[in-house]
Amino acid sequence: MHHSLPLVWRRIPERYNLIGCKCETCGTPYFPDRKICPKCRRKGKLVKQKMPKTGTLYSFTRVHAAPSGFEHESPYWLGIVELGNGVRILSQIVDSPEEKVVIGASVTMVFRRIYADAEEGIIAYGYKFKTI
Ligand SMILES: [Zn+2]
Questions:
Q1: What is the distance in A from the centroid of ligand 1 to the CA of 20?
Q2: CA-based torsion, 59, 77, 9, 124: positive or negative
Q3: Cα 22 to ligand 1 centre (Å)
Q4: Burial class (CB in 10 A: 0-12, 13-18, 19+), 68
Q5: pTM score > 0.85 for this model?
Q6: Cβ neighbours around 15 below 10 Å, total
Q7: Can you give the pLDDT at residue 63?
Q8: Which has the closest alpha carbon to 35: 16, 52, 13?
Q9: Which fold, 53-132?
Q10: Ligand 1 center to 89 CA (angstroms)
Q11: How far is the CA of 119 from the centre of ligand 1 (A)?
């Protein structure tokens, strides 16, 4: 286990396709996937669903002190993206000119290297977002 890998990334098992789920009872989408709809409880019926790959930037922050393994990317943008279906996810914002990184900016998902461990030779890939 990589203790230096930010918890939020380790907890996302479906990072390649943005597969979440949707409650068929109330229509609420969730990402990551979950077992129980907090609104419907036992009446909820959750089915897997692919999340939209575009959305808008809901909020963001510039990270200057990168965690171990991300030093080469410091500083970088970390944002909360609101997808087209209203689901909000935390993601790094990459390949975006500084003037376009604003609240409400249109963003799209890209597939990038998220982590490299030189000692163990492990490279993890996953999603990030960039401004359109
Ligand atoms: Zn529900």
A1: 14
A2: positive
A3: 8
A4: exposed
A5: no
A6: 17
A7: 82
A8: 13
A9: OB fold (Dihydrolipoamide Acetyltransferase, E2P) (2.40.50)
A10: 19
A11: 45
